[in-house]
Amino acid sequence: xxxxxxxxxxxxxxxxxxxxxxxxxxxxxxxxxxxxxxxxxxxxxxxxxxxxxxxxxxxxxxxxxxxxxxxxxxxxxxxxxxxxxxxxxxxxxxxxxxxxxxxxxxxxxxxxxxxxxxxxxxxxxxxxxxxxxxxxxxxxxxxxxxxxxxxxxxxxxxxxxxxxxxxxxxxxxxxxxxxxxxxxxxxxxxxxxxxxxxxxxxxxxxxxxxxxxxxxxxxxxxxxxxxxxxxx
Length: 232
Known about the structure:
- The protein is of the alpha+beta class.
- The protein folds into two domains: 3-194, NADH Oxidase (3-Layer(aba) Sandwich); 195-231, no CATH class.
- The protein is built from seven helices and four strands.
- The protein has helices at residues 3-9, 23-33, 53-75, 90-109, 132-144, 159-166, 198-201; strands spanning 45-50, 116-122, 148-152, 175-183.
- Strands 1-2-4-3 form a four-stranded antiparallel beta sheet, sandwiched between helices.
- It is globular.
- The mean pLDDT is 91.
- GO terms for molecular function: oxidoreductase activity.
- This is Nitroreductase family protein.
- It holds the Pfam family Nitroreductase.
- InterPro entries: Nitroreductase (IPR029479), Nitroreductase-like (IPR000415), Nitroreductase/BluB (IPR050627).
């Protein structure tokens, strides 16, 4: 797969088929992940792949409970997703959250069918600087294999139970960074259409100075059109 296709079409997939992911496919995904950059090449990461159905059912229960806690926070005006970004339309933000909740409800309702969970652990991760490149590499490599997924943090509400179920040696400093649900998607891959254009979220040399070009549409796939206009 051409790299720009992967970059432009990899998105969160919450509607997954129950078909198992072959072990050699899983190996290729993780082999790409461990090539990700990390500070000092310390490689202080560990990946736990879970395909045991009984374990997945237990994590499904925890996921639904944790998600209920997060949406209760949202309902009462708490949490990071409540407030729109500066300058964003509150109505558009509410609609986005409604759609995300809908697809998230599907994942919660069908979590028991997810073929593969991937728990990602790290030590002294400096706010995620060393582990998030590897997680993004997982999602990109999965995309190349036709596998979709979503990264979620909600099981941090039950971190101790996750550690217990997976036998995590927390005394060594390991801490869960995220969990990914992985599977072959029911939907279609496509370029995300709901992104603000580059020139609206970028500046040059100082905050709010023009970026220099307007980018009114996605630049992939390539378009045979005139040059991009200069930003005013």
